[in-house]
Specification:
Number of domains: 3
Domain Mur ligase C-terminal: 326-454
Strand order of the largest sheet: 9-10-8-11-12-13-14-15-16
Number of helices: 16
Number of strands: 23
Keywords: ATP-binding, Cell cycle, Cell division, Cell shape, Cell wall biogenesis/degradation, Cytoplasm, Ligase, Nucleotide-binding, Peptidoglycan synthesis
Catalytic activity: D-alanyl-D-alanine + UDP-N-acetyl-alpha-D-muramoyl-L-alanyl-gamma-D-glutamyl-meso-2,6-diaminopimelate + ATP = UDP-N-acetyl-alpha-D-muramoyl-L-alanyl-gamma-D-glutamyl-meso-2,6-diaminopimeloyl-D-alanyl-D-alanine + ADP + phosphate + H(+)
Subcellular location: Cytoplasm
Radius of gyration: 23 Å
Strand content: 15-25%
Distance between the termini: 27 Å
CATH architecture of the largest domain: 3-Layer(aba) Sandwich
GO molecular function: ATP binding; UDP-N-acetylmuramoyl-tripeptide-D-alanyl-D-alanine ligase activity; UDP-N-acetylmuramoylalanyl-D-glutamyl-2,6-diaminopimelate-D-alanyl-D-alanine ligase activity
CATH topology of the largest domain: UDP-N-acetylmuramoyl-L-alanine:D-glutamate ligase
């Protein structure tokens, strides 16, 4: 199906097509480009114009460029624009303008991507759905998501992130959502913000892009909820809240965690609800309730949404659970790995540790008689001047009391390592690669191991090393999905 013709792309961007073309996709990376894509020559760490010839040789049907690159013929299928990033933004606006889809935007300090994937699962069961790839939520990810949207899309989900002030509002105005959801506001990116209130105001700027009479879905349990509500009212939005507090429109009343799922009871507009998600975590149930609140108010089918949520599982790197079998013959000689290595801040760390604390290891299998709950925690980045205090404070979380061993990675995590009681204190390593070399000494059969840290801490290296101790088996939830 044609996504953009040369004429439409030129009209949207104010560019000039050197020859006629039709493309059925867009790509910014020649490593994953597919025949029929248009390559977008963005300039980031490297100038994308250096890769145009490679893209065309791999079957790209066109390339968006600001000049004809060296080694590329002047009769190649190029779309010449003044500046590639602004042109991509124009293409995204045009992609949004030409569709009749219900567009949903999502932001929050924690849970953006996993909740976006919940929405993808829910809306895909009800119509043609388009959603942001991976964590494409920044100044190029949002316009790329919009520009990739097929014209016949019925539901679209746009993730919007930030790491400094002034990012979210312009992206929201570009996306023009019919509904916007804020999962939570937490101590993330404090290096760029004065305090939690400043973070809340930035998150709340997502409502600036709402279509007239649009819907604002807000976590009603936060210290900063009044800031979010005021911003939604200023935008003229309809408002629906979710949380555990009695005043919320959708209210979580009970949560039960199991190995591979979470079951929760809730009330939505005075209607009793029983919801299930295919991943363990109170935070997953909370965000699923927010999704249901949004679904209900934009006119989608809530019963079908409840069924779809039960099939959803956590994406890789965001709480996905897997069994690592350490013996080819005796399959019970295994440990469970919780891969949450993509992102971390104090709020998400507390949620992940709660999941680990509630998990049940298997006893009597390994060298250590009792199965253990083990955490491997990497630095939480971009927390500003209070980073040492925030890392050390993790030692006081209730969930920590249920853990057997905590290994720490990175200079910031040294503060937590020092704050832990001796019986719970594991190893500390300056780098993830250093700890990964000793992966075999971290775990035993019957253990449950959580690995979590900011992406920049590179604790995914520890995840990879732990996987290499055996072979992976999907959890029952993953296999069913």
């Amino acid at each position: 199906m044609t996504l953009w013709t040369a004429a439409d792309a030129a009209a949207a961007t104010g560019g000039r097509a050197l020859q006629d073309f039709e493309v059925d996709g867009l790509s910014i990376d020649t490593r994953s480009i597919r025949p029929g894509d248009m390559f977008i020559a963005l300039t980031a760490a490297r100038d994308g114009h250096e890769f145009v010839a490679d893209a065309l040789s791999k079957g790209a049907a066109a390339a968006m460029v600001s000049h004809i690159p060296e080694g590329v013929s002047d009769d190649a299928p190029l779309l010449l624009v003044d500046d590639v990033l602004p042109a991509l933004e124009d293409l995204g606006r045009a992609g949004r303008a030409r569709t009749g889809a219900k567009v949903v935007a999502i932001t929050g300090s924690v849970g953006k991507t996993s909740t976006k994937e919940m929405m993808r699962t829910v809306f895909s069961a009800q119509g043609r759905t388009h959603a942001a790839e991976a964590s494409f939520n920044n100044h190029w990810g949002v316009p790329l998501t919009l520009a990739r949207m097929p014209q016949d899309t019925e539901f679209a989900i746009v993730e919007i992130g930030m790491n400094h002030p002034g990012e979210i509002g312009p992206l929201a105005r570009m996306a023009r959502p019919d509904a916007a959801m804020i999962t939570t506001v937490g101590a993330a990116h404090l290096a760029a913000f004065d305090d939690l209130a400043a973070i809340a105001r930035e998150k709340a700027s997502i409502f600036e892009g709402l279509e007239p009479g649009g819907l604002a879905v807000i976590n009603g349990d936060l210290e900063t909820t009044p800031i979010l509500l005021d911003a939604a009212r200023d935008a003229g939005a309809q408002i629906v809240t979710f949380g555990t507090g009695a005043r919320n429109h959708h209210r979580l009343t009970d949560v039960t965690l199991s190995r591979d799922s979470t079951v929760a009871r809730a009330r939505g507009w005075r209607t009793p609800l029983l919801l299930k998600v295919g991943a363990a975590g109170r935070h997953f149930a909370m965000n699923a309730l927010g999704v249901l609140a949004l679904v209900h108010r934009i006119g989608a089918d809530r019963a079908r949404a409840l069924c779809a949520l039960a099939a959803w599982g956590a994406p890789e790197g965001r709480g996905q659970r897997e069994k690592i079998v350490m013996d080819l013959v005796e399959e019970q000689l295994s440990f469970e790995l919780i891969d949450d290595a993509f992102n971390a801040n104090p709020t998400s760390m507390a949620a992940a540790l709660e999941v680990l604390s509630a998990s049940e290891p298997v006893h009597g299998l390994g060298r250590v008689e009792a199965g253990r709950r083990i955490a491997v925690l990497g630095d939480m980045l971009e927390l500003g001047d209070s980073e040492e205090e925030l890392h050390a404070a993790l030692a006081g979380l209730d969930a920590m009391q249920g853990l057997d061993r905590v290994h720490c990675v990175g200079p910031r995590m040294r503060a937590l390592h020092a704050a832990l009681p001796e019986e719970r204190r594991g190893r500390w390593a300056e780098t993830a690669s250093e700890l990964a070399k000793n992966a075999s000494g971290l775990v035993d059969a019957g253990d449950i191991v959580l690995v979590k840290g900011s992406k920049g801490s590179r604790v995914s290296l520890v995840v990879d090393a732990l996987r290499k101790l055996g072979h992976r088996q999907p959890t029952e939830t993953e296999g069913d999905a």
